[in-house]
Amino acid sequence: MSDEAVHHRWMQECLRIAGEARKNVGNGAMAGAVLVHENKIIAQGVHRGFGQVHAERDLLLSFGEEIPSGAILYVNLEPCCHQGKTPPCTDIILERGVKRVCFGMRDPDSRVSGKGIEVLRSAGVEVIGPTARASCERFNRGFVSVRTKGRPWVTLKKAMTKDGRIANEDGSTLKITSEEQDCWAHTFLRSRHDAILVGAETVVRDDPKLDVRRASAPFPQALPPAVPSSPDPFPHGGKGNTEEWPDPYSKIPVHASVLHHARKMRKNPTPAELKLWEELRDNKLGCWFRRQHPIGCYILDFYCNDFRLGIEIDGSIHDDPEQRKQDEERTAALEEIKDVTLLRFSNDQVLQDLPAVLQTIKEQLTKAPPLMGEGMGVREKEGRAGPEVTTHNTYQPWRIILDPSLRIPLDAQVVTDEARTETIIITDASRAGSETAELLRGRGVRVFGVPASGGRFDLPSLWRVLTTPTEDFHGLTSILVEGGARTWQICMDAGVVDEEIMLIGS
Ligand SMILES: NC(=O)c1ccc[n+]([C@@H]2O[C@H](COP(=O)([O-])OP(=O)(O)OC[C@H]3O[C@@H](n4cnc5c(N)ncnc54)[C@H](OP(=O)(O)O)[C@@H]3O)[C@@H](O)[C@H]2O)c1
Predict the structure, then answer these.
(1) Backbone dihedral region of 444: left (phi > 0), alpha (psi from -120 to 50 degrees) or beta?
(2) pLDDT digits (tens, 9 = 90+) for 142-158
(3) Nearest CA, atom 45, ligand 1
């Protein structure tokens, strides 16, 4: 294994550990650290909760022995160098004589942002990184969003029948998704956001639980095995498995027809993009179209049976020289990404000879290299030491209800069940002191007032309430908006959707 692959592998371990503290860290970053010596983890640490010591400090405080020379301290976020709620991590790293540090991403917090690396380097520490930067940034996308945009990361999740319905005509609940899709959504969407958000009407009509209860189902192991050598790229009738990239733990069941695309795709696709995307979707080949690639790249990620294929449509249609230059830079960056086989088509090819384009894609799928390699989604148990961490299955996100007039039924599950203290009701500021609000607070439900006008919350105020730590609520960084249609629309119209995931029911 190359040094880079080794670093990548241990960085994935940091992310796995870090993820155990999701939601507990409030508006802060999830961070995990491992100290590796002779290919073994000899200590590990985690940022356990808001205001608590960071992962590197946690590790070094728990590891009383001398740091072996040659050991590498891995941490997914650049060590901090400022006195915040806890002392600078660079101090303890230097005090303990750590000689090599490998970090995943720079800290977007302006108080750090490269300075932590500088402090270590100028003290003679060998600093390696950023390693697996895309994975690390993707993993902490909520934290990055709060620090850079002042709002949480917003993912929209929609379930839709093939003919485009999201509920029955009378508004009653329509079961759209399969057990497997639910399982995927609980594992990779609900478990990977700090909060699930719905509008009041969804609570009135569906009385949802908004919890994680299917994440322990046998997914993705239950998927059919990959058949890389099969001449048929879709040996399971369009089935396969995929990996959310660059988050190595997510696998999207293609046969569930998951269409994943970013907001911009909808807003401004070129005719060629749209045509190819629709064709792949309609063929139920399972595709994933994203504009907001971590490197800013314009790419269609297409996955089947562990193959990763990037499809790029020639960006030269852009008249704007600046835009063209950006495209060229992105293409160059794309070529450097490992594990992606890149196919390029011109706009004319897609628009004028689509069957030939599809044929090329299918042929490529039969020979593309397998996606799952060392350090990519493979959790290696060997060589690990330290306590076993619990799995994500116990994780429960916050539940946020947008209810300006406090009209949800008082016997709704979200305000009566055991997890009601994890429910946040956002109501019009003028109702925050009402009798109903007090009654709910008496049950342990959190009721926050946000100014609204014309029945719509002021979004900057809403983000402030949700991301600013207080004594008993430490803020959050990522939200999965599950519906319904009006709530989706409000988010889209406000331009706050970072990703959109559509589960098409069978
Ligand atoms: N297929 C799916 O994926 C899916 C998912 C969830 C729900 N659904 C279905 O969707 C239907 C409900 O959808 P819907 O569009 O009627 O209602 P909804 O989106 O669930 O709720 C809309 C209401 O939420 C409040 N709200 C939302 N955003 C707000 C904002 N920014 N500011 C202030 N208030 C805000 C408003 O409450 P007020 O009306 O009190 O002002 C608004 O009218 C149900 O039938 C449900 O089964 C489907």
Answers:
(1) left
(2) 999 999 999 999 988 88
(3) 171
The secondary structure of residue 117, as a DSSP letter, is: H
Q: Which atom of ligand 1 lies closest to the CA of 494?
A: 31
426 CA distance to ligand 1 centroid (A)? 13
Q: Give CA–CA dist 186/378, Å, rounded.
A: 20
**Residue 490: CB within 6 Å of ligand 1?**
yes
Residue with CA at minimum distance from ligand 1 atom 8: 484
Q: Which of 472, 492, 471, 495 is nearest to 483 (CA)?
A: 492
Residue pair 194/233 in contact (Cβ under 8 Å)? The answer is no
Q: Is 50 exceeded by the pLDDT of residue 421?
A: yes
- Between the CA of 289 and the centroid of ligand 1 the distance, in Å, is 26
Assigned token pair, 247: 């988050």
Atom of ligand 1 nearest to the CA of 171: 45
> Phi and psi at residue 424, in whole multiples of 5°?
-115, 120
Domain 3-146: CATH superfamily is Cytidine Deaminase, domain 2 (3.40.140.10)
The structural domains of the chain, with segments of one domain joined by +, span 3-146, 150-158+173-213+391-497, 217-390
56 annotated active-site: yes
- Which of 197, 430, 457, 486 is the pocket-test mutation for ligand 1 (most atoms within 8 Å of CB)? 486
pLDDT of 505: 63
Write down the pTM of the prediction.
0.73
* pLDDT class of 289 with cuts at 50, 70, 90: very low
Residue type, 288: W
> What CATH code is assigned to 150-158+173-213+391-497?
3.40.430.10
Reading the block at residue 384, the tokens are: 């690990």
Alpha carbon distance 212, 395 (integer Å): 7
**What value does the mean pLDDT take over residues 351-373?**
67
